[in-house]
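Form 7-S
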Amino acid sequence: MIKIVPLNDNILKIIINEKESLSFVKEIKKETNLWDYNIKENEIKIIWNKEYKINFKVFIKDHIEIFHDVEENDRIYGLGEKYARLNRRYKRFHMWNVDQQIHLPSGDPTYLSIPFYILANPKKFLGILIDYAGYIYIDTGVRNLNEVFIKIKSDYARIYLIAGKNLKEILRCYSEMTGKPFLPPKWALGYHQSRYSYMDQNEVLEIASEFRKRKIPCDAIYLDIYHMNEFKNFTWDSKRFPNPKEMIEKLKDLKIKLVTIVNAGIKASKGYAVYDKLKEIDGFIKYSNNETFLGIVWPGICAFPDFLNEKVRKLWSYFISEWLNQGIDGIWLDMNEPSIFLILNKDMEKEFEKVLNNELSLFSFVSKFSTNLINKNIGYVKIDAFHNLNGSKIHHDEVHNAYPLFQIISTYEGFIKSNSNKRSFILSRSGFIGIQGYAAVWTGDNQADWSHMEISVPQLLSLGLSGIPFVGADIGGFSDDADPELLIRWFQLGAFYPLFRNHSDINSRRKEPWVFGEEVESMIKEAINLRYKLLPYLYKLFVDSYREGLPIIRPLCLEFPFDENCYDIDDEFMLGDSLLVAPILNPGSKARAVYLPESKWLNLWNGKIYKKGWNFVEADLKTIPVFLKENSAIITTNVKESAEEPWDKITIETFLTKNVNVKIYDDDGITFNYKKGEFFEIELNIKKEKNKLKINTNILNDKFEPSFNKIEVKILNKINIERAFLNNKEYDFSKREGFIFLEFDLKELMGK
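Output:
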């Protein structure tokens, strides 16, 4: 009943009741002798590399119960976007995707389920991945302080142990198993503006024009459900959006992309082409009696595509490609847990019409019919329905958490069908293991509240430690009304989110950068400008993520694994391996305590140098504390109105006392040509030897002409330099405002 298979030096597989089933893991097999294990009845003892020991107990009933030990100083990281601190220990979690209305620690489960976590302390790093898409309950120390309890609602399971020397090695292995993160188009790294909802095409164009008139960079505007006819996917409301083609063309003239929402529920209405075509191929999930499963969502009575069915995925990719062919740039997948207000009941139909007509609140409607909820404590709707998987019926319970993943994959295939050599941008609210290969994620319907801004940091860090790097939270809060200080501070933080999007609810105060007047606008604009200044550095981080599976924003313990102080800090973070960001997360604060690990750190705003340890750092309303690590660098450029524009000149800004290595990467930012080797990458070694500055360059790949033609080196700390050398030849440099500058022509360096 229990079988153990060491796959390679890092990964061991535990099989409980071997059975052919869906798997979301690519197994990489290589002979290994690093794993020792022993099975005795229901007990498993495992040792990796004679270092890490872990003991399991397994009980098999109509479900599976697993217990494993944890050490006193083990932290538990991962498990996706839970409303909890970075260290998940001493909590209880449910893996079951839902449209969660409670955005508080008591609000669990959430939109997205990633049954993967890491046990970590400075001497041990062990990942545990449960390869099952149904319901899983995980207790990380409530039932027993020194034990993790796992309950899997199945009589079979596959569990993978991933061992490594540090967190980075664990994440590299995890990404090899579940898929490397996708590399987005450059524009997706810019600022995105959204609202539920921009109500017509005139309003969309007015918003776009305001950004350009005010000289605030912006790359994308989103359309929520009010662009649709009766909330039906892949349709336009002819009154609100009478000429979408003209709107799209005008947006393109303004260098602004258009992202439109697509929901999972399909209005069950004859004559609606999407419904009819899916019906023709028997493409909806079904009740046991073979009738189409129906539920109530925004369009009213809806059927739900069976994305496990290959025919459905093919047809869905066609719908997506035809929609994109109008000139739409990105797809925003929402309500895809799937979110269902209630399972259909004839008594509900008239009441739901009142919701659509704003005569009854959705809360009141759901409360009235709440008996349809299977379990009010964890709040999920029972979907007693079946899928068609390669001709076999499979109950939705077994694949619920993977439902959005199959939708995401077929949406991605629609992008490829529309243009096989153009990168996609998909933003999804829900997902499962492997989502990182296809889509970005945001944390759903948060609120305009300081605590929601604060919790976004451990949420996004945890998503990164769950293998999902392209993540964000709605800046300013989706619901409720933001005040000026909160909006400023959230923009300052959001400028460092991998996904930089402002989004707000139809009933909340607007949250565009200019809503509170010129003074607030100027501070928000500075935060957005900082984002665009950092684009070359950010883009290289996305490339590193694509190559190695590493997060973009990182908890301190990822970069400083031997400093135990870093293991519980989750109100500051690293952007890559060079920048430490310590956001202001409380109203009225003009300073905060910041922990700085290891070496010295330079404050980017005033040049002050801090030593390792706890420091008191001032930060007025215009400033977010940001620090550059000693002997590291960031790559910056001139601010443009869109992220697709050429960088022209690259500046390497460095805090140099000894030696810095830095790589600059560029490609076209649009196509997949980088996979064919069409990219530019250069490595620079910048060294201080007494009073000499020595820079040596190494072109790693030159099969693409980069968008910049000059490289400038700017030393941010005060050092005495009397002579400079570039590739062993003496080179001119300058001193301005106390900084040392050296600039060289890239084409000259390349001998062109």
